[in-house]
Amino acid sequence: MTPFILGLILFFAIHSVSIINKSWRDQMIEKLGVGPWKGLYAVVSLVGFVLLVWGYDLARQGSTVIYFSPGWFRHLTMLLMLPVFPLLLATYCPGRIKSFVRHPMLVATILWAVAHLLVNGRLADLLLFGGFFLWAFLELISMNWRSQRPVPGAPAAKFNDLIALVVGLALYSLFVVWLHKQLIGVALF
Questions:
Q1: pLDDT tops 70 at residue 151
Q2: Is 180 left (phi over 0), alpha (psi -120 to 50) or beta?
Q3: At what angle do helices 104-119 and 123-142 cross, to 10 degrees?
Q4: Domain encompassing residue 5
Q5: Same domain as 152, residue 135
Q6: In a shared domain, residues 144 and 187
Q7: pLDDT tens string 80-91
Q8: Rounded to 5, what percent of the chain is helix, strand, coil?
């Protein structure tokens, strides 16, 4: 469980700098420069993510079961996951979806976390999905009071919504049918 907890701490700590102390972040960028700051951010994020994934794989095998979900929650989870990939893509392909949702990646993360909390009741699951839910929720709230940095992506266009929907739903289908089993080790059907 130690690598998992360390991964969670590293990953969420670096991703929460703007929520917790934006002025410190700005000072570090001024001191180090944009490139080195982004490099440091990327390295800490990657190390945290690798520890998180590896640690979660180890932790979930012997993790205590906190709750069991009714079988029909799987259907609710599948439904909640349906907009996740289109929302993620709408972040980088701005159109009406991004204008309407404002922060589609954070909304996608919240939906992903809630959907997975519905059907995964082990302690490791609660830490992983609950951690992502809490981080995305706090980040979403903090976006209302801090200045926004531009997100790199395609220029805004009316066809971006169609791209986000079609490619997003294709990715969702691919994940449901094959990738979830290949990447996560859990068959959905």
A1: no
A2: alpha
A3: 160
A4: 1-62
A5: yes
A6: yes
A7: 999 999 999 999
A8: 75, 0, 25
Mark whether 77 and 98 lie in a shared domain.
yes
Residues 134 and 173 in one domain: yes
The residue written with tokens 């009071």 in the block is 145
Is 88 found in the same domain as 70? Answer: yes
**Helices and strands of the chain, counted as H and E runs:** 10, 0
> Looking at the structure, do residues 97 and 189 belong to the same domain, yes or no?
yes
Calpha distance 110→114 (Å, rounded): 6
The tally of domains found in the chain comes to 2
Kindly state the percentage of the chain with pLDDT values over 90: 67
**Mind listing the pLDDT tens digit for each residue in 111-148?**
999 999 999 999 999 999 999 999 999 999 988 776 66
Average pLDDT in the 24-40 region?
89
62, 89, 104 — which closes off a domain?
A: 62
Sequence-distant (≥ 6) Cβ neighbours of residue 143 within 8 angstroms = 102, 103, 106
Do residue 70 and residue 30 come from a single domain? no
70 and 23 in one domain? no
Is the model's pTM score more than 0.90?
no
Tally the C-alpha atoms within 13 A of residue 43's C-alpha that lie toward its C-beta. 6
pLDDT value at 153 more than 80: no
